């Protein structure tokens, strides 16, 4: 027979202490369980609760273990744009480095950061990207650039065609890289080793090492690697002459 129920009737204003277990157990299922984790490994997934049971699954496998389905939000923004599309191409190269060219419905398209697509239309451009934290950040940068070009295209042309004094001193450029990193991330997060020709940037337990001989960046965090690399590329482009074909006024 089951244990009889116990009834407690404390007096008014009497303190009552209830103890609950704080630990919760979650089972890892699906692709995440294919490899046994080791102590200290980080597991990233979606925590699903069913009744009193918890499971951790990969976002791609949600529909196999739950009634949920993963969707993608495709965002699009269209703005007026009458400046030359070739000027936008050049400015996007300065911003992102690599620009993929393609055609869609006989219209020129540019893709930057592997996530944001800019399509040329009549007196306007459309910007498309998949909604995400990184995608929204990249799209904001591209949108800001497009608005700046549209507001004053002649100033952007002159800036692109500006010739800086040739033969920049390499040590001077290294000093500028150090000052730029300190300005972006703070003096306490930047370490300069002139003998080894390295600059180390630390941000949220992530480290980016800048090789001042080759101006390459080594970092395991993709976001920090992208930000530091882009900053060095923009500084280098600002301090060295660029050869850009003169674009006729429209």
How does this model look, in words?
The chain is an alpha+beta fold and 250 residues long. The protein contains six helices and twelve strands. It has helices at 62-65, 85-96, 133-151, 153-161, 170-185, 222-239, and strands at 26-28, 46-50, 53-57, 74-80, 99-104, 107-112, 116-121, 124-130, 190-193, 198-203, 206-211, 216-218. The strands form three sheets. It has a five-stranded antiparallel sheet. A hairpin with a 2-residue loop joins strand 5 and strand 6 (107-112). Helix 2 packs across helix 3 (133-151). The longest helix has 19 residues, at 133-151. The termini are far apart. Residues 161-168 and 241-250 have low confidence and may be disordered.
Shape: extended
Q: Report the radius of gyration as a whole number of Å.
A: 27 Å
The H/E string reads EEEHEHEEEEHHHEEEEH
Please state the average pLDDT score.
80
> What's the number of extended β-strand segments?
12
What helical percentage do the residues reach?
Answer: 25-40%
Question: By helix and strand content, what is the structural category?
Answer: alpha+beta
Strand content: 25-35%
How many helices does DSSP assign?
6
User: How would a crystallographer describe the biggest sheet?
Assistant: 5 strands, antiparallel
- Unreliable stretches: 161-168, 241-250
Strand order of the largest sheet: 4-8-7-6-5
Report the span from N to C terminus. Answer: 92 Å
């Amino acid at each position: 027979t089951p244990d009889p129920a116990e009834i407690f009737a404390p007096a008014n204003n009497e303190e009552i202490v209830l103890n609950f277990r704080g630990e919760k157990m979650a089972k890892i299922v699906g692709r995440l369980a294919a490899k046994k984790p080791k102590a200290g490994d980080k597991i990233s997934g979606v925590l699903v609760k069913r009744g009193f049971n918890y499971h951790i699954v990969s976002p791609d496998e949600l529909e196999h273990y739950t009634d949920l389905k993963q969707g993608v939000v495709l965002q699009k923004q269209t703005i007026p744009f009458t400046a030359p599309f070739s000027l936008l191409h050049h400015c996007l190269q300065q911003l992102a480095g690599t620009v993929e060219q393609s055609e869609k419905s006989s219209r020129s398209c540019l893709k930057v950061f592997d996530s944001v697509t800019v399509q040329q239309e009549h007196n306007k451009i459309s910007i498309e990207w998949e909604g995400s934290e990184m995608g929204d950040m990249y799209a904001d940068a591209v949108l800001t650039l497009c608005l700046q070009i549209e507001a004053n295209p002649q100033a952007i042309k002159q800036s692109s065609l500006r010739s800086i004094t040739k033969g920049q001193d390499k040590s001077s450029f290294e000093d500028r890289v150090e000052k730029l990193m300190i300005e972006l991330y703070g003096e306490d997060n930047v370490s300069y080793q002139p003998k080894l020709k390295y600059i180390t940037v630390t941000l949220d337990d992530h480290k980016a090492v800048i090789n001042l001989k080759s101006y390459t960046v080594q970092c395991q965090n993709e976001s920090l690697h992208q930000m530091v690399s882009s900053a060095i590329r923009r500084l280098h482009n600002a301090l060295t002459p660029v050869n850009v074909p003169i674009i006729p006024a429209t």
